[in-house]
């Protein structure tokens, strides 16, 4: 009997082990990144694709799985990296895919093995993080389902994935050169908004679906690359829409004609469900919403996506919610939902303030160990326009910080820490009195397992009465969004902090002339970028770098470090 009892215990333990670990898989992908001709909005152009696809292939995995992407650079004349947006890279900081921070850029003809664990379910995506390759089209979806034996805290019958982006007809190189020119040259707002890489430039989907002879009808025949992906649904079902924004510039608003949405997930974290008519989504954010197909089943309905936060010069993106069994060619009787006015920030703030953590989610520590206040300003360096944080415009070094800090390469970057605050007499409501700034590449060195508050402080840009929206994304962590406020942050504003049920996010917006308060714990050894996710702003210096517990990082691949003068010296020294 004792043997039987012991055998039973062992059997139960083995079953438990199998349930927890046995179903986890390593999912292998082999990718080639290259330029190719494509027609994202029915107008042929050059895009950056993967394995001949645009957007890149969708990765689908389960929580706990290992992803292995063998990435070969076939661009011929430029390096490449890929960032796995929202994946925390616990134990694998070199796989974060940030050039000059976590790794060297992958040179033409070289291959790099990104290998990492996706540790929690959610709606994520990936994109280029070298130069402005996201603008060139280097992105795709990454969906992590719950692990076997686990269930979501909500029910749905089926799902759709919607990856949103913006698209210019001028090349990314035109944009890069213009941003770095004196005088500053801006290529303008994007020509088209894309849904899963598909849009329609200078034509009407309504005219196309109605089969009229309108001169504004989209020519989609034989052009599958720009034909809209229609969401085909059955009546009286619940559908999950996974929505992620990898836009380079545009803040967006999404609405489904005649249908309300229930928000259930934000940036891979469950939230208290709440119902809305539309959602604002900023670059770097992701959401899951549920819709119930309970409207008149003899009709189709428009799904519209429009620009927010900037004066819109880009038309709405449209597709259809098509109720089976009626034809998708039956156009909706009602016009597409109207996007809220671009500068209706009260609408935006109302939505953001409704996002709260689901009951049972981790709560933030009650107090912080360090507070860093980051002033976001537009400045000048020798007449060139830059974006700066606490009057320093980020200019990344040639050697990745991860290797420089791990192996004490003292001359690889500025060893002086950037400031934790800005001058107390700075007036955030007016243009800077002295607009001049400087470049820098210092690092905020953070002790491991401490609580850090970051206050993002927005301010007036160079022109009077101008303050822009900035969505900030943190690599390697989720943070709690403790609150938003108007004007200049003060000690009194701490009373407004939500410590009861603040949402966990990896991207948070600061509104014009306002502040956003974040809190995170430095529990993930590595070097992590924290930056505005608007690509032109990052290109112009709008970011900082955090480092924590780098001495605990082991197993950094040599290939991640062998670049830059000191990087080459290090590689030579390790070979001797």
From TrEMBL:
Its EC number is 1.10.3.3. One of its GO terms (biological process) is response to hydrogen peroxide. One of its GO terms (molecular function) is L-ascorbate oxidase activity. GO terms for cellular component: extracellular region; plasmodesma. Its cofactor is Cu cation. Keywords: Copper, Disulfide bond, Glycoprotein, Metal-binding, Oxidoreductase, Repeat, Secreted, Signal. Pathway: Cofactor degradation; L-ascorbate degradation. It catalyses: 4 L-ascorbate + O2 = 4 monodehydro-L-ascorbate radical + 2 H2O. It is found in: Secreted. The keyword Cell division does not apply. SUPFAM superfamilies: Cupredoxins. Residues 33-145, 161-324, 430-550 form the Plastocyanin-like domain. InterPro entries: Cu-oxidase-like_N, Cu-oxidase_2nd, Cu-oxidase_C, Cu-oxidase_fam, Cu_oxidase_CS, Cu_oxidase_Cu_BS, Cupredoxin, CuRO_1_AAO. Belongs to the multicopper oxidase family. Dimer. May be involved in a redox system involving ascorbic acid. This is L-ascorbate oxidase. It comes from Acer yangbiense. The lineage of its organism: Eukaryota, Viridiplantae, Streptophyta, Embryophyta, Tracheophyta.
């Amino acid at each position: 009997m004792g043997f039987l009892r012991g055998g039973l215990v062992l059997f139960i333990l083995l079953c438990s082990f199998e349930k927890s670990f046995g179903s986890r898989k390593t999912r292998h992908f082999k990718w080639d990144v290259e330029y190719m001709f494509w027609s994202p909005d029915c107008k042929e152009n050059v895009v950056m694709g993967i394995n001949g696809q645009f957007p890149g292939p969708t990765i689908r995995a389960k929580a706990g799985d290992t992803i292995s992407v063998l990435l070969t650079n076939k661009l011929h004349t430029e390096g490449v990296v890929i960032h796995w947006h929202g994946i925390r890279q616990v134990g694998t900081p070199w796989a974060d895919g940030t050039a000059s921070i976590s790794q060297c850029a992958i040179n033409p003809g070289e291959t790099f093995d990104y290998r990492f664990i996706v540790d929690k379910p959610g709606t994520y995506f990936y994109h280029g993080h070298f130069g402005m390759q996201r603008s060139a089209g280097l992105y795709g979806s990454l969906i992590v389902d719950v692990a076997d034996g686990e269930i979501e805290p909500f029910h749905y019958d089926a799902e759709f994935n919607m990856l949103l982006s913006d698209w210019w007809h001028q090349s990314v190189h035109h944009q890069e050169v213009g941003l770095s020119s004196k005088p500053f040259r801006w290529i303008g707002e994007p020509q088209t908004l894309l849904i899963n890489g598909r849009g329609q430039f200078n034509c009407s989907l309504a005219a196309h679906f109605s089969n009229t002879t309108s001169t504004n009808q989209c020519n989609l025949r034989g052009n599958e690359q720009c034909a809209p992906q229609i969401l085909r649904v059955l009546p009286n079902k619940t559908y999950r829409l996974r929505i992620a924004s990898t836009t380079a510039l545009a803040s967006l608003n999404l609405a489904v004609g005649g249908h309300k949405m229930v928000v259930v997930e934000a940036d891979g974290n469950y939230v208290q469900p709440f119902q809305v008519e539309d959602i604002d989504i900023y670059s770097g954010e992701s959401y899951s919403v549920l819709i119930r197909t309970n409207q008149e089943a003899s009709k189709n309905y428009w799904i519209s996506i429009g620009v927010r936060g900037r004066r819109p010069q880009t038309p709405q993106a449209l597709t259809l919610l098509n109720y089976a069994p009626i034809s998708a060619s039956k156009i909706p009787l009602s016009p597409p939902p109207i996007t809220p006015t671009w500068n209706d920030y009260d609408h935006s703030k109302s939505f953001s303030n409704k996002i709260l953590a689901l009951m049972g989610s981790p709560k933030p520590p009650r107090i912080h160990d360090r507070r860093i206040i980051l002033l976001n300003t537009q400045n000048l360096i020798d007449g060139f326009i830059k974006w700066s944080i606490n009057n320093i415009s980020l200019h990344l070094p040639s050697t990745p910080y991860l290797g420089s800090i791990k192996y004490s390469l003292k001359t690889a970057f500025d060893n002086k820490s950037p400031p934790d605050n800005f001058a107390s007499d700075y007036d955030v409501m007016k243009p800077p009195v002295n607009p001049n700034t400087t470049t820098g590449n210092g690092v905020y060195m953070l002790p491991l397992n401490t609580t850090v508050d970051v206050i993002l402080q927005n301010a007036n840009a160079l022109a009077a009465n101008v303050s822009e929206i900035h969505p900030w994304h943190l690599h390697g962590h989720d943070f709690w969004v403790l609150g938003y406020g108007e004007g200049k942050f003060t000690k009194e504003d701490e009373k407004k902090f939500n410590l009861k049920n603040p949402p966990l996010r990896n991207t948070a917006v600061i509104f014009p002339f306002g502040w956003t308060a974040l809190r995170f714990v430095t529990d993930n050894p590595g070097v992590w970028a924290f930056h505005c996710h608007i690509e032109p702003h990052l290109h112009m210096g709008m970011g900082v770098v955090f480092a924590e517990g780098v001495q605990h990082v082991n197993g950094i691949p040599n290939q991640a470090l062998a670049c830059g003068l000191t990087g080459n010296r290090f590689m030579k020294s390790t070979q001797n």
